[in-house]
Every structure is written in C-alpha cells, then in structure tokens.
Amino acid sequence: MSGLDFSCNNLTGAIPESLGKLASLHALNLSHNHLRGPIPASFSNLSQIESLDFSFNNLSGKIPPELVNLNFLEVFSVAHNNLSGRVPDKRQFPTFDISSYEENPLLSGLPSEKNRSQVVETPLPSDETEEKWYEVDGTCFFASFVATYSVVLLSLGAVLYINPYWRRRWSHFIENCIHRCYYFVVDALRKLATNFNN
C-alpha cells in the first residue's frame, strides 16, 4: 500500500498511533474530518512518506519535532486546526509555504515571520484598486435589455394574435386606460381653471 486517503469524511476521535507502523506509505490524507488530539509522534516512522495532509480538523498540541526525520516529505499541511507551539525549523520544514500552517493562531515561527524582511509588496495599479465589484458592462446590459424587451413584446403579440378572446380583452383594457387618462387630465385642468378664476 503506497497511499491512504480518508479525506472529506466524518472521522472523529484521535489519529491512531498504529498508522505510524505503515513504513512503506508514500501519501496520507486525513484532511476535512473531525479528528481531535495531537499528531502522533509515531508518524516519524513513516520513512517513505512524501505527503502528509492533516488540514481542516480539530487537532491540538505541537507539531512533533520528530517529523523532521522524514527525509522524503515534500507536501505537509496542518492548516485550519488548533495546533500550538513552534513550527520545526530543520531540514525540509523551512521550505513549506505559509499556507501549510494558516488558521493555527497559536503556532509560532511561521515562514512569513522568518522571511518578513524579504517580502516585497507590489502595489496594485490605481485603476484595479478602484474597480468596483458591481460595475456592469454597458454594452452587455443594453443588449440584454433590448433582447428581453423584444421577447416580451413578441410573446404578447403572438398571444393576442392567436387568441381572439384575449385580443378583445386587451383592446378594452387599452381603451379604458385612454379614457381614464383623458378624463383625469380634463378634470385636473378644469379644477385648475376653477381655482385660477376664483
């Protein structure tokens, strides 16, 4: 067996110490579970291991310093746990990215702290920093508006053309609207003239 992937399950409890006996294992993924407790120091016996992923669990305690003896370890992640103490700084551990340890507020000696003076922040151009997420392309908006409006009008026209009952109802509706608007304007002008004469 060269790899074990138990990720994205609902595993609970502590990580079994006996997993450290699988000396020929090359990859172990326990991420996205509900595991608690410490990382077993017995994992230092996984002499052939190349990838260890404990991210997105509820692990606590320190990162076992014995893990620095894993000479083939290339991928290591304990992100999003409750680990504490100092990150090992020997052999391959200083080469792991800060993302391998993120969301462990009690960890110290992270890569970003060691290389803070070497980090160079590149400012974004002013037009990118001022870009709003709600900005809309005017051409696309206008085109979609016209297309939607045309579809609605064509659908309404097709219904009125096919169904004579709805055609008559629509004619009565338009006629009533015209009469109401006409009499509303006439009444408003009449009242305005009466008030003006008084």
Automatic annotation (TrEMBL):
Membrane-related topology note: Single-pass membrane protein
SUPFAM superfamilies from the UniProt entry: L domain-like
Alphabetical list of InterPro entries matching this protein: Leu-rich_rpt, LRR_dom_sf, RLP_Defense_Trigger
Keywords: Cell membrane, Leucine-rich repeat, Membrane, Receptor, Repeat, Signal, Transmembrane, Transmembrane helix
Domain of life: Eukaryota
Main location (coarse class): membrane
Keyword check for Repeat: yes
Listed name of the protein: Uncharacterized protein
Originating species: Hibiscus sabdariffa (roselle)
Lineage, uppermost ranks: Eukaryota, Viridiplantae, Streptophyta, Embryophyta, Tracheophyta
